[in-house]
Design brief:
By secondary structure, the protein is mainly beta. The protein has helices spanning 145-148, 173-178, 363-366; strands at residues 2-3, 72-84, 90-94, 100-101, 107-112, 116-131, 134-144, 152-162, 183-184, 187-196, 199-210, 213-220, 226-235, 241-242, 257-270, 289-299, 307-320, 324-334, 345-352, 374-377, 384-392, 398-405, 410-416, 422-431, 436-447. It has 2 domains: 2-270, no CATH class; 282-447, Lipocalin, CATH 2.40.128.
């Protein structure tokens, strides 16, 4: 790499790739199973089990706690941080006007590596179906804006299909008690008094040492619900670092940092959706694929005109139960510049009969909903679901539009009133004080 600066002032560069990403993922590493206990042999688990109990005889067959039923909601205050050991060091950022040039002609300018990043919000878990040997979960993250003190903003959604006996968010209490006193292979299990929001809970505490850090869980001994989780792991960060010393010699130090994730129980309640527990429509148990198409439009004060990109979403059924389906979703955005490409995003989603924004709502219930009706208001996140519109869609069919809002942002779900099928999704997302906004809208174009 060369510089436009005079040779006598030209430092020697070293570019270091550091792999990391800040998120609110709660899985830091694969935790070891509890050691010293008989393993299950020849048992093929069809859904995730709490990682600490994977392979433990009988763990997969334990029932769910009594409160785990359709409509149950548990909410956690979640924080995440990524510290940077290279804070204050010089980094190189791509810049067409920069003075540093690599062998390919790419230019860079110097900047200072920051301290790191952090975020906070609420992780909300809804039980949307129970049966067929699994529990189906719908999860949402509500971002707390203004450095964790401001209004909530609708974040990302995801799904999980787990075994009833336990997952990250709960464990069968009898299964927990069975291993109190365990100390083996970096795992310790003990009873503690866990203090949370001014209350002391009899809890079972599990601490696991990992090669790059640790993860600990505290579960309420009576209900099995997660009261708190803390984890930390070291990481190698992804950035361009300019290494130099007073003698103009490049150093060989690798950048590193630490990821920290914390969840604390914030509350639980039962969500009484009008369509909860209704049987799934016949088509939901028969169709295999759904294709949606639409557009994503970006707005910003600095843009001369909005940037519009075609978008599509394909849902393919992976498996299904009595009143739930698990689907693979492929999201594709088509960039307006043919020289730019955005690889498809793939994720697994699930839909059940007691869900907000699911693949269907029972038609008999849709026909009784009234415009302006409030379906649910959440006291923790400030989220709300209401009936925004009842009437005719653009194609002339009778529709019901449900809108889910946080204190910032909204998602709209359009259902065909006769079949109960989700035929459209729209969302709007704003970005702080920048004035930037992204709107996305897709509509059902085919199914089979």
């Amino acid at each position: 790499m060369t510089s436009d600066q005079p040779a006598r002032h030209r430092p020697v560069l070293r570019i270091v790739l550091l792999f990391a990403g800040l998120g609110l993922s709660t899985t830091l590493a694969a935790a070891p199973a509890l050691q010293g206990f008989p393993e299950s042999r020849g048992v093929r688990q069809t859904a995730p089990l709490h990682p600490l109990f994977t392979g433990v005889a009988g763990a997969a067959d334990a029932p769910a706690p009594d409160w785990v039923r359709p409509g149950a909601r548990i909410t956690f205050h979640s924080t995440s941080a990524a510290t940077n050991d290279d804070a204050g060091r010089t980094s190189l950022e791509p810049d067409p006007n920069g003075s540093w040039v690599d062998e390919s002609g790419q230019r860079y300018s110097e900047s200072t590596v920051g301290l790191g990043a952090s975020g906070a919000g609420y992780t909300q878990i809804d039980v949307v179906a129970v049966g067929d040997g699994v529990v189906v979960l719908d999860l949402r993250f509500f971002l707390l804006t203004d450095s964790g003190t401001g209004p909530t903003k609708l974040g990302f959604f995801w799904s999980d299909v787990v075994l009833p006996s336990g997952c990250e968010w709960w464990v069968n209490p009898a299964l927990l008690r069975r291993y109190v006193g365990t100390r083996a292979q970096g795992v310790s299990v003990q009873r503690i008094a866990y203090e949370l929001n001014g209350r002391r809970y009899p809890a079972i505490y599990i601490h696991t040492r990992l090669r790059s850090g640790y993860v600990s869980y505290a579960y309420d001994e009576e209900t099995g619900v997660l009261l708190g989780q803390t984890g930390a792991s070291s990481a190698v960060r992804s950035d361009l670092l300019l290494e130099q010393d007073g003698w103009g010699q490049g150093s060989t130090r690798r950048g590193s940092g630490r990821n920290i994730v914390v969840h604390r129980f914030a509350g639980s309640r039962s969500v009484a959706l009008p369509w909860a527990g209704q049987p799934a429509p016949d088509w939901a148990m028969r169709l295999r694929e759904f294709q949606y198409e639409g557009a994503v439009t970006a707005f910003a004060p600095s843009m001369l005109s909005p940037l519009r990109m075609a978008a599509s979403s394909t849902l393919r059924v992976l498996r299904r139960g009595t009143d739930w389906v698990e689907l693979e979703q492929t999201l594709t955005t088509h960039m307006p510049d043919p020289n730019l490409t955005a690889p498809p995003a793939r994720l697994v989603r699930a839909s059940g009969s007691s869900q907000i924004g699911g693949l269907w709502v029972a038609p008999a219930v849709l026909r009784d909903l009234r415009q302006g009706q409030i379906i649910d208001s959440d006291p923790i996140t400030g989220g709300r679901v209401c009936v925004d519109r009842v009437g005719q869609g653009a194609d002339g069919r009778s529709v019901v539009v449900l809108v889910e809002t946080a204190q910032i942002g909204h998602h709209a779900y359009t259902y065909d009133r006769d079949s109960g099928m989700l035929i459209g999704v729209a969302k709007s997302e704003t970005f702080g004080l920048t004035g930037a906004r992204i709107d996305a809208e897709i509509s059902l174009v085919s199914y089979r």
